[in-house]
Every structure is written in C-alpha cells, then in structure tokens.
Amino acid sequence: MNGLARAQASTDPTTTAAAPPAVFAVQLTNFSGPFDLLLNLISRRELDITEIALAQVTDEFIAHIRRIQAAEGEWKLDEASEFLVVAATLLDLKAARLLPSGAVEDEEDIALLEARDLLFARLLQYRAFKEVARHLAQRLEEEDARHPRDVPLEPHLTRLLPELIWKHTPEDFAALAAKVLAPRQEQPSEVGIEHLHAPAVSVRDQAVILQDFLMTRGPLSFRQLTEDAGSRLVLVVRFLALLELFRDGAISFDQAAPLAELLVRWSAEDGQWSAEALTSDVEAGGFEAEGNGDAPDGGPGLRSWGEREAQDD
Question: Does the keyword Chaperone apply (predicted)?
C-alpha cells in the first residue's frame, strides 16, 4: 500500500490528556491508528514494512508505557514483553525486505525468502493468539456475571430419597483397607514349559507306518504317504524313514514320465525286512544314532546333521 493509511480514532482530547489511552496507537507520517491495525495491514501486505519507521514506533511505545506507569503506578510488563516480541519480528522482516531482490540463484536466496515467509507467519500467529486471548477474556468476564441457583431440594422430592443407614463401623472399614493393601501371600503358580519341547518322533515307528501303508494300499506318492502327518516334524521323520527303507532295499521308486511324481512301491518279500533292522532313531532337537551309529551290514547309519556335515567336509 503506497498511499497514506489513516485510521484516526475519534477521541476527546481532554479525556486523552486526563487518562492514558488503553490501546497503543502510533502516529507516523504514513500511518496513524492503533498498533494492531498496523500489524494487520502489514500482514495483509497492504502496507510496506520498509515504509514504517520502527524507531519512531518504539519511541512512541516507550512513551505510552511511561504514561501508564505514571497513571497506575506500575509497569505493564506483559504488554511490554508482547511489544518486544512483535517489534523484533518486524525488525527481522524489514531487514529481509531491504535485502537486494532479484532472481533466485542459490540456496542462500531461497533461505532468505523462506525466512521472510516465516516472519509473516509469526505475525499471523501473533494476531491469532491475541484474538483468542481477547475472546477468552470476554467469556471469563461474561461468566463472572453468572450465579448458580442455590436452593434446597423441594419437600416432595426430599421424601423420595432413601434413608441412608450405615451398618459398618470405622473398625470394619479399617479391616477392609488392611485386607486390600496387604501383600499377597500365595506364591505365583509355575508356568509349564512342556509346550516348549516337541515330542520325540521315532524313525522306526514311522517306517512301520509306511510299511503298513504300502503293503495295504499299493504304490503311493510321498504326498499320499504324509497326508496324515500332524506336524512338520512327523513329515521330516517320515521322509527319513523312506530313506532308511530305500537303503535297506525294502522299497523302490517308480516314475512314469520325466518330471512326473515319484511313486513308492514296497519291494521286500514277506519276512525279508523287519523294523528291528533300523539301527537309528530321531529325538526331539536333533538326530542321534543308536549304538555306535553303524548299520548291521557295516553301511553308514543315520547320524546327526553335525556328524554328516563334518564327514562331508
């Protein structure tokens, strides 16, 4: 805003001389009016901050504070601190506007523009807080004029209230409080850890199950042989049992076509194979061989995974 901004308040000169104005007003060459109106015009960019003499505004505010102190006998510290914050913001904003303007060439210019926008945001924030404070003060003043209706309950309603009868003595309440505050005597129950250990699954038992499946139902795929496996551990041990049976020559594998599903067939004669021929077992947590871990025929028995890896290395 390049023109002259005038916002003269119609006040009586005699009244103004008798008592200091409650609202701080400034008298500049290009503006005359309340300080809040000046901030409003600057925030809406209707008045250029570079045209405002901040030193003159500061001098007028100091004179305003001194007049209030002379009339009321005390300093308005809250108003003074509020003005200092706003004046510092205006000073920073004016310094940012006085910097050479031109095309934005580097990050420093961008930072200066962002700082200027932040200063405008601080002015808007100040206006918002001041408006909210004014609204709250008005509401508090209105609420001070309200008084609650303090009358006793009407007689016909009083008769409806039940009679309050105390059956407990202070000693009873003391006993209840002691019972509630007393530490618990019983020990916490132990938490079972059985669920942390999976049950052992025997290779020998799974081999017997596979023998029964293959002898009664004929050739089956591995999927069919493990469809009743209740857990992953059972599935793995049943696969190990297949390997043991194949090593002992009790089963054979058929494949009708390349990449087709393998079918397991029982190939041992009656009485030729027995579950007692298996010399290995599986325990929960790892594979352990019975005896010395060797098969009856001198072949390799079922060892733990660690033993197999050590042997492979």
Answer: no
Strand partners, 295: none
Residue with tokens 């008592």: 19
Give a yes or no: residue 204 inside a domain.
Answer: yes
The whole domain housing 92 covers 5-100+113-142
Average pLDDT over residues 131-146: 84
Whether 20 and 71 have beta carbons less than 8 Å apart is answered as yes
CB of 52 closer than 8 Å to CB of 93? no
What is the number of other CB atoms lying within 10 angstroms of the CB of residue 203? Answer: 24
Q: What is the pLDDT of residues 18-30, one digit of tens each?
A: 444 566 777 777 6
Kindly provide the residue ranges of all beta strands, DSSP E only, lying in 235-302, ordered along the sequence: 251-254, 263-266, 280-283, 286-289
pLDDT in tens, 55-111: 777 777 777 777 777 777 666 667 677 767 677 777 766 666 666 554 445 666 556
From first CA to last CA, the distance across the chain in angstroms is: 88
Q: What is the CATH number of the domain that holds 273?
A: 1.10.10.580
**27 lies in a domain?**
yes
How does pLDDT run across 167-226, given as a tens digit for each residue? Answer: 888 898 999 898 888 887 766 677 777 667 667 788 888 888 988 888 888 888 888 888
Distance CA 199, CA 234 (A): 10
Statement to judge: residues 38 and 137 lie in one domain? yes
Written as six digits, the tokens of 117 are 């926008």
288 shares its domain with 209 = yes
Q: Please indicate, yes or no, if residue 232 is contained in any of the structural domains.
A: yes
